[in-house]
Each structure stands twice: as structure tokens, then as C-alpha cells.
Design goal:
Two copies of one chain form a homodimer.
Chain A (H helix, E strand, L loop, with lengths): L13 H24 L6 H9 L6 E2 H8 L3 H13 L3 E5 L7 E5 L1 H22 L4 H29 L1
Chain A binds a DNA duplex through helix 4.
Chain lengths: 161, 161
DNA sequence: CCCGAACTGTTGCGAGCGCAACAATAGTAT
DNA sequence: ATACTATTGTTGCGCTCGCAACAGTTCGGG
């Protein structure tokens, strides 16, 4: 892996530069996440699950897959790992015998809080490259883009049906 | 998969909102890419390789892995696929008998040009959600962030050594 | 009540990718 | 020249993830 190819001069249009930057930014942000979470023995996927849980009711598996936009089978296997690690436990849902919910163990709660604090701190640090004003403006841009792109995907999905 | 969980109100800080948006944007952009490339029988990875090639010398495998930030083995297998599909062919490098380069076949060149045109058009379309002025401002933000984050990763890499 | 449709979670399978080890080749220091 | 090291590409292995099929359960229309 190298980070040499980061000049945008040869790219034909601003639209294309923007496109490339979205991709590149994701790559460096993800790499930063892995650095932060690795000392806790957590992958980004496991972390995202952990953050959605609590020590009480927790969440149903189907809720987790909906929230994280991953397949149900992925959640099944993530929870398998995390249960084996002693961070979470499955509980049958008495009101719906198909369903289970997943809640944090004491160990999982501790891990969640520590990892969350470290991750939040890291985000503040990394995103702090931009001042609060610029961050706000960037969020506005992103919201407009994401809304538009999302609609386009949903449209093409419904066309497939 | 659903796109329901897109509100940012519960997120604690602007830095964190920004972080989430980078991730979300990547997801919708990637999904859009797959839609565009699927009619050509191309995955995003194959497309990225194709764009870097030409019908003359092409590129060495190591160059491709450097430019695309993927492992050498990934390139080996991508080229295997694309050679089998008849889009590219390997040529031994006479000046370095360890190396090969990969060049487009006539079929590959045609595919590359068609897919590139379709992808460029799609990018213009999708990024065009923002006007030219906003795009330019966004690029400036991104460049600052990417530069800062990149340096941070390179620093932590060198610390590991 | 009952039958078919929808939903929840699990499993098998395959695609994609990174890492480590390897053979072949090239570069370099003595 | 020799020996040591670096580089190029390939392969085996393991991990992550999505899709399709499945069993068990719930829901709704007749």
C-alpha cells in the first residue's frame, strides 16, 4: 500500500475530483478507525454493533441488520463472535418466539464505553482538521448530496421490481 | 437493506456527524457505481483496473497495486479474471524478467471506452447535485482533510516500524 | 379455524480481499 | 565474483460479507 497517487490534476472534471475524494476520504477514515479500535480487539463492524447495544433489552438481530445496512447472516455471525468473546448474550424474546435480542454483558458494557470514548476522541481529533464553521458547511453539502443520491438508488431499486 | 436510519439528530457532535456522512456517502456512491457498471459485466474493482490500462504498454502489476491501494495478490487475481474474459493480456517485460505488464485487448479497449463514458456521465449526473461553485468548495475541504488524515496514518505507520 | 404469505434467524456456498510464504530475478556491497 | 537484500508476481490460507435456501413462528383473509 502506498499513498503516492493523490494528485488530482489529471482528473477531467470537478465532478470527478469530488467523486475520487469521497472514495479516498473513506479509505483514510476507515484506516484511522482500524488504528483506534485495534487496541480493543475490535473490528469496525464489531464496534458498530457494540455501539447500538445496551445492558438492558439491547436490540433484535433484525434491527441491527437494518440499522447497519448489512445482511442478516452477517449479524448472526458477528453476534456469534461477540458472544464467544463474552461481550454480548442472546435472549429469547418472550413476545415473539421467532426473535431474540442481544444485550451487553458487564464485560461488553465496559468495553463499549472505553472503545466509544476512544473513538469519539479520535473523531473529534481527526475531523477537527476543519473548524466548526467549515464542518457545519460540509455537513450541509453532504446532506444535500446524500439525499439526492439515496433517492436515485431507491428509484432504481423500485424499477427493478 | 433499508435506508431508514439516516437522521443525524441523535449524534452528539458535528465532528461525529461529518464522520457518519463520509461513511454514508461512500456507501451510496459505491452502490451507484455498481448500478452503472453492472450492465457492462464489470465490478468496481475491475473497472478501476481497466481505466488505468491502455492498448500499448499498459501497466505493470505492481504499479496497479500501488495506484489502487490493494494487495499485489488482489491484482494478480483481478488480472486472472480479466485475462480469462479476454479484456487484457499479460506480456513479459524484456527489461526485467521478474515483471510483466498488462495491456488491453481490442475487446478490452472497446469495453473500457464504453464503460468509461457511461461512468463519467453518471458521475457528472450524481455530483451535479451540487453546483460547480459548491463542488469547488467541497474539493477544497476534502483536500485539507485528506492531507491531514493521510499524514496521521503515515506517522502511525512509521511508528510501528 | 386454517392455509398461505410474511417475518426472524441460521446455514452453506461463493466472491473478494489481505497477509505471509515462496520462487525467480535484480540490485548492491564487499 | 559472491553473498546478502530487495523486488515482482503467485499461491495458500483465513476472514468478511452477501445471497439463497431453510425451519420455525406469526399474521391475515377466507
Amino acid at each position: 500500500m502506498s499513498f503516492d497517487d493523490f494528485d488530482l490534476d489529471h482528473i477531467p472534471s470537478n465532478a470527478h475530483r469530488l467523486y475520487r475524494l469521497i472514495h479516498d476520504l473513506y479509505v483514510v477514515v476507515d484506516a484511522g478507525d482500524r488504528d483506534v479500535l485495534e487496541p480493543f480487539g475490535l473490528t469496525p463492524s464489531q464496534y458498530r454493533v457494540l455501539v447500538l447495544l445496551d445492558a438492558d433489552y439491547g436490540q433484535r438481530l433484525i434491527t441491527l441488520s437494518d440499522r447497519l445496512l448489512v445482511a442478516r447472516s452477517t449479524i448472526t455471525r458477528l453476534i456469534d463472535q461477540m458472544e464467544h468473546a463474552g461481550w454480548v448474550h442472546r435472549v429469547d424474546d418472550p413476545s415473539d418466539r421467532r426473535a431474540q435480542h442481544v444485550a451487553l454483558t458487564p464485560l461488553g458494557l465496559t468495553l463499549r464505553n472505553q472503545a466509544y470514548a476512544a473513538h469519539e476522541h479520535s473523531i473529534e481529533d481527526r475531523m477537527g482538521v476543519l473548524g466548526e464553521r467549515d464542518q457545519q458547511r460540509l455537513i450541509d453539502f453532504f446532506l444535500r448530496m446524500r439525499a439526492a443520491l439515496r433517492n436515485r438508488i431507491i428509484e432504481s431499486d423500485s424499477q427493478k421490481k
